[in-house]
Amino acid sequence: MAVRSLDDLIEGLNSNCKDGKIDVPRAKELMLSYDGVGNKKDWEKYVYWDENKYTRNLVNDGEGCDGKKCYNLIALCWNYGQASTIHNHANAECLMKILSGNAREELYKTPSCCGEAKNMEKIKETMYKGNEVAHINDTMGLHRISNPSEKEGLVTLHLYFPPFSECKCFDESTSQTKVGQMTYYSKFGVKVNQESCCGGKSCCK
């Protein structure tokens, strides 16, 4: 199917969900096909900015054609210089599409579970621009997303499948972990009352 709008993307994802699962190559194809940069009107209502933290805004909760939940589609809004913690993805797949601005991804090696406290090992750093799609899962490592700009906001569209409610956050200098709850700043375009997680500044993602 042609992906001409955000509604088309959601329809494509829903129709490809079978038994609560979606195929990774197909999901990536759909995300790449959607021109988010050229269709700002599609996602403007999900954009909420906060001076103190980036915001997570639920677009769709992923009920497939069989009635089972198989993904979360979330718009994240990053003000100048804002960043996530280093985090994992709870054995889920994550696809991130750039809707506006440029994103920096820092990829880290997953530390051993019983090692001594030490600095996290950065593997790679990548910049993503409009309409590009990044993919990560826990076999690839951990990552941190940030908005490197001092002038421009960043809006990213994240597809998590299967959906998850918490992740592990990692301290860069010690590799120590804590659990972060996945909260939302808004749902379906409407702001909600919520408390931030991961130290009171931002959620894991």
Describe the protein in words.
With 205 residues, the protein is mostly beta strands. The chain has one domain (6-201): Jelly Rolls (Sandwich), CATH 2.60.120. Helices cover 14% and strands 35% of the residues. It contains 4 helices and 15 strands. It has helices at 6-15, 24-33, 40-43, 198-201; strands at residues 17-18, 21-22, 55-60, 72-78, 86-87, 93-100, 103-108, 122-128, 133-136, 142-146, 154-161, 166-170, 177-181, 186-187, 190-191. The strands form 4 sheets. A 7-stranded mixed β-sheet has the order 9-6-11-4-3-14-15, with helices on one face. Strands 5-12-13 form a 3-stranded antiparallel β-sheet, with no helix packed on it. A 3-stranded antiparallel β-sheet has the order 8-7-10, with no helix packed on it. It is globular. The two termini are 30 Å apart.
Question: What's the helix and strand layout?
Answer:
Blueprint: H1 6-15, E1 17-18, E2 21-22, H2 24-33, H3 40-43, E3 55-60, E4 72-78, E5 86-87, E6 93-100, E7 103-108, E8 122-128, E9 133-136, E10 142-146, E11 154-161, E12 166-170, E13 177-181, E14 186-187, E15 190-191, H4 198-201
Parallel strand pairs: 3-14
Antiparallel strand pairs: 1-2, 3-4, 4-11, 5-12, 6-9, 6-11, 7-8, 7-10, 12-13, 14-15
